[in-house]
Design a protein that fits this description.
- The radius of gyration is 28 Å and the shape is elongated.
- The longest helix is centred in the first third of the chain and has 18 residues.
- By secondary structure, it is an alpha/beta fold.
- Strands 1-7-6-5-11-10-9-8 form an eight-stranded parallel barrel, surrounded by five helices.
Length: about 575
């Protein structure tokens, strides 16, 4: 594999558009002095800023990227070109690299665990709440774009108040102990109008967009961000800025391990020491929506898989998005990916199927931590015979200690508690169904979903012979079942046991209450089942035996319905 594009660029198709350069200079002159005092080496939380965005798709234009780089840097940085990524030689107590392939925070190895929240897509009164949610799941950094087109709606008329008060947003993040990655563009993409460039730039005849210059005192680490292909990495990178990659679980996206291997090789070929940290600037934890198409979904297990692969490769990452928000007003943009491609515009909602939904509620991807007691040691070393359960020490992710305090809430699962769940839960009853009837939206089980109580009734008609039976748990993942308040035990999809014994003494004529605590939870799925229940006729099966309106009570927020797994109740 080679990276020849720097040597065979040919004509540079984005030379100096002076109108664009003048406008860019004015924008950066307003923004960067506001951000400079908030950099980490000056006591603030900003550890890095990104030059441009996915320029490899648009470029190459090395002169533009070089002049954009110079617009951020001053003579202090230019005096240390050999140390352009790692500034420890100039500033103490800073953020940089350690020369061994790691980020370094105050001289110690550091891994960035970040999530994207765009301040301008959220009412500023909600900033602290959303950022607290990001911190509480164990992330240590927030990433945000800076939308030029909103800050300068008219030439020379800048706004940094209210929902556009980026200084306040950074300050709130700092107060919560979060670091910040700032992505000021000038082009940001982000599915917004003209990629975040002000539309008034188009009024000038011959305007060339995304071409550069003027220097500002920015000393923090600079980064670039491109799709994980050799061509785009080469075209979009800039000496003195750390290249990073984007990828997701989509079929057209490079696999995480492949993209990171490419980035590692690119760093070896383009860095003198061959060592630099691996960073995923956008790990797509969801996707955006187009008008006229279905709501995009990215399954939780796919996101977890990407995170695990990145951590195994030693990479840092930014979840894009952690919380999407809303394209208020006329801010939403559109796609037309090449000549002859259809024009498709983005919806007002930028929910993004993220961990935190558009309105701030946790989705199935947001999981308070669940600690399970699978039984204390029966026979083993003496020290294990005094076994405690719960969080007994620091909680870590990828070897990094997660910040914040942890509260533990026991779910005792005693008879009184179970009765209270049934009597006082936030129930929603679905229509009663006969066997074989089509099922409207019902819960679907999926790993990584939110823990949930599922409730239904089994009707046994008068005169029905009641005998010992078994509950078939095929299709369920992991949890506990209560029949008429009695805990009949655990089920677990890993086997070998698939059926739970139900003595006849637990059943009665009429309504029998069945409560499941499904630990691995529910996530949406578009495929309905034909029936919520099937009876296996191992003997005489009463035709009235069925679930009458499955219901739910959700532990950590409102669930979303789609389908229910088949559940067989055999009779002997």
């Amino acid at each position: 594999m080679t990276f020849p594009f720097r040597d065979t660029i040919g004509a540079e198709f984005m030379l100096y558009g002076q109108g664009f350069l003048a406008a860019t200079n004015l924008y950066l002159a307003e923004l960067l002095p506001r951000m400079a005092p908030l950099q980490y080496d000056r006591g603030g939380p900003i550890i890095a800023m990104q030059l441009e965005n996915e320029f490899g798709k648009f470029g190459p234009d090395p002169k533009y990227m070089r002049h954009l780089h110079d617009a951020f840097r001053d003579d202090v940085q230019n005096a240390y070109p050999q140390n352009a990524l790692s500034l420890e030689a100039v500033y103490q107590n800073s953020f940089g690299t350690d020369g061994k392939g790691n980020f370094a925070l105050d001289g110690k190895p550091h891994r960035i665990l970040s999530g994207s929240i765009h301040y301008w897509r959220i009412p500023h009164a909600y900033w602290e709440h959303r950022l607290s949610m990001l911190r509480d799941v164990g992330l240590n950094t927030v990433e945000t774009y800076v939308p030029w087109f909103l800050h300068e709606r008219f030439p020379g008329n800048f706004s940094f108040q209210g929902d556009l008060d980026v200084e306040k947003f950074v300050g709130v993040a700092h107060s919560l102990g979060l670091l910040v990655i700032l992505r000021p563009g000038p082009y940001i993409c982000s599915e917004v109008d003209l990629g975040g460039l002000p539309s008034w730039l188009l009024r000038e005849d011959g305007m060339r967009l995304r071409s550069s210059h003027q220097a500002h005192d920015i000393t923090c680490m600079l980064m670039t961000c491109d799709f994980g292909t050799p061509q785009e990495l080469d075209r979009g990178s800039e000496k003195g800025a750390l290249p990073t990659v984007n990828f997701g679980p989509q079929a057209w996206s490079p696999a995480p391990a492949k993209a990171l291997a490419l980035l590692r090789k690119f760093l070896r070929l383009t860095r003198k020491d061959g060592q630099a940290p691996l960073m995923v600037m956008e790990m797509w934890a969801g996707w955006f929506d187009y008008w006229g198409e279905g709501h995009a979904r990215v399954e939780t297990e796919a996101v977890v898989g990407m995170m695990e692969e990145a951590l195994e490769e030693g990479a840092s990452f930014n979840l894009y998005m952690f919380h999407g928000g809303t394209n208020f007003g006329f801010t939403a943009g559109a796609h037309m990916m090449g000549p002859g491609k259809d024009y498709t515009s983005f919806t007002t909602s930028y929910d993004y199927d993220a961990a935190v939904m558009e309105d701030g509620r946790p989705s199935a991807k947001f999981l308070p931590m669940q600690v399970e007691n699978l039984g204390r040691v029966t026979l083993g070393p003496a020290e294990q015979m005094h076994e405690l359960k719960g969080l007994l020490g620091p909680v870590t992710l990828g070897g990094s200690k997660l910040p914040g305090d942890w509260d533990m809430y026991p779910l005792e699962m005693e008879e009184e508690y179970v009765a209270q769940v049934i009597a006082e839960g936030c129930w929603r009853k679905l229509p009663s169904l006969d066997a074989g009837a089509p099922s409207p939206s019902m819960p679907a089980l999926s790993p990584g979903g939110s823990p949930v109580f599922l409730y239904g009734t089994l009707h046994l008609s008068a005169g029905t012979p009641i005998a010992d039976t078994f509950l078939d748990t095929t299709g369920w993942r992991k949890g506990v079942v209560f029949i008429n308040g009695f805990n009949i035990g655990r089920y677990w999809e890993r086997g070998p046991q698939r059926r739970l014994y139900v003595p006849a003494t637990l059943l009665k004529e009429g309504a029998n209450h069945i409560l499941l605590f499904e630990q691995e939870g529910i996530t949406p799925s578009p495929k309905p089942l034909k029936s919520p229940v099937e009876c296996e006729e191992l003997g005489k099966c009463d035709a009235d035996a069925m679930f009458d309106g499955p219901r739910w009570v959700h532990l950590f927020g409102k669930p979303q319905f789609s389908k229910t797994p088949q559940m067989s109740i055999p009779y002997m």
